[in-house]
Amino acid sequence: MTQRDTKFKDVDKSSVASGYIASAVEEGIISGFLDNTYRPNEPVTRAQMAIFVS
To answer: What ranges do the domains of the chain cover?
Structure first.
């Protein structure tokens, strides 16, 4: 996937995941945190995973 800009201040456009993250936001799968971060280096909690699959 192509690298893309995201709205998250902790996801740099040069990140290999940036395109996937941007697409997931566009599809409404993820929205990030209220402080405009995605926190890509933190583990996904069980509650967050439940939201992803719902």
So the answer is: 1-54
